[in-house]
Amino acid sequence: MKISCIEPLGINQQQFEELKKEFASKGHAFEYYMDRQEQSDIVVERMRDAEVVVVSNIKINSEMLSQCPKLRYLSVAFTGLDHIDLAYCSNHGIEVQNAAGYSTTAVSELTLGLMLDLMRRITLFDGSIRHGEGRGAFLGSELRGKTIGVIGTGAIGIATIRLLHAFGCHVIAFSRHERSEAITAGATYVSKEELLKRSDIVTLHVPLTEETRHLIGEKELQLMKPTALLVNTARGPVMDIEAVAEALQAGTIAGAATDVYEKEPPLPCDHPLLHAPNCICLPHVGFATREAFDIRADIVFNHVRDWLAK
Length: 310
Description:
The chain has helices spanning 13-25, 40-47, 62-65, 86-91, 104-120, 122-130, 155-166, 180-185, 192-198, 218-223, 241-250, 290-308; strands at 2-5, 29-32, 52-55, 73-76, 95-97, 147-151, 170-174, 187-189, 201-204, 229-232, 255-258, 279-281. By secondary structure, the protein is α/β, with parallel strands linked by helices. The two termini are 13 Å apart.
């Protein structure tokens, strides 16, 4: 079979060559690409003749998939699968498998970092000091003792709860399914409405589905304290970005930080969050650590090995 890894995945060429030798010893052709290209025609060209494709978060729609008649298996080096046309894959016998768990620590640690940044204005003051300014009258806040609302208690949500517990926070949670691991980690489940009303910080850790799209919108933001902060390291559309920007402008909430958007960065210069006060915007780096990428490579290629062995 032909296996095509259509982007570098943070793997160096020596590692790819070792994989190529391994798969060749088992009678499979393996090709890889050391650059990331998102143009549909280039992506299709890299996938066209392969039975097995490895990809991370490049969007792959039905039109692209229809031009790859040999494709039977997608090993996705990403947690979410909303960028893949799963309905087409299901209808055409293409198995899709994600890389759940590779970035749990990376994303949960970034989540805490964004909370601390918002509360202590780390990014803001870096700019201030470079312009010859001091702190003025600003007083920051501490995480210890704060009520943090965690929406979504999958692996990343639970990892975040554990970190928050270590900081001395009071953690409340809302999720479609309550999990004993979250309770053991120190969270108390409440309704979404109660969580929004009580939390000093709300942090989002849900996948993007039709149910979670715009889970946080104008109505939900109105329930939050005017001193509350919002952090999103999940998927961009789980919050209504226009509504969040308006809430920041109006002082409905005190600050926000996000690593995710409706589309992958770079963002247009007129993106509403780029002009909202006290809003930290990162270029989708929550998953991007050396450790996470090494774990991801092991997961995705073990998935390929297991599928080939069926």
